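Data availability (excerpt). The following record was deposited with the supplementary files.
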Amino acid sequence: MHRRIDWPAHLVLLLGVALFAFPVWLVFAGATQDAGAINRGDLSLIPDFSHLGIFLSVLLHGYGEAGGHPAWRMLMISAGMALSIAVGKIVISVLSAYAVVFFRFPFRMAAFWTIFITLMLPVEVRIIPTYAVMADFHMINSFAGLTVPLIASATATLLFRQVYLAIPDELVEAARMDGAGPIRFLFDMLIPVSAANMAALFVILFVYGWNQYLWPLLVATDPRLDTIVIGIVQLTFGGFTLTPWNTMMAMAVLAIVPPVVVVVAMQRWFVHGLAEVEK
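Predicted structure:
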């Protein structure tokens, strides 16, 4: 017996794909066209495939006549920043959730609620004191200054705490009777149990770190630490007589590729992790 095709659902999905894909296609097509034509509003939806070399040119040489660093360098800075933030947030959150759930120490819940309350403080609210702390530690214009202040995550700590609270007490007692110490219990029991959640969080946090703009703009005035997002903005507000829209769009396409690769590569783990969170 053949299953009936749910055409309304398929049409809604196709419409969603079109809404998300159209801006990306527009940017890709614009990257292959003349900057003057784009400034005049003559942007075609059909790419000029003879000008695909602009992507390689921007990747290797940067802004061309506008100067600047090659895009590959900014992509590496962005990738290093995103990886450091994602891995750092997961490591610190796992350890803090482990301590709050399985260890008994004074003011344990007070410490947890202090972490939880920081969810109400967006980055923009605490950015001035954070910058002052980084300046006191001489971490301005350094890679550590780009990443360290963004590593702590109350959301990830709360998530792992909920996962660890669901572990039966019998399992903890069995591990203790088998002679498993705190470190072995963490690596042999807790990390495998929460591996799917870590994968889902890694994807989300990688994209979060990749898209950072305000903090890198403030803490890294050295052009050698420019991320790809900063590079795109510099092209937009660079004071050029003619905005190089094609170069900017080429950089935007290159900036999209690494997060897409991460999401596609970890798609199965990502969906599985979200399903675990739902439980």
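Summary of structural features: The chain has one domain: 71-278.
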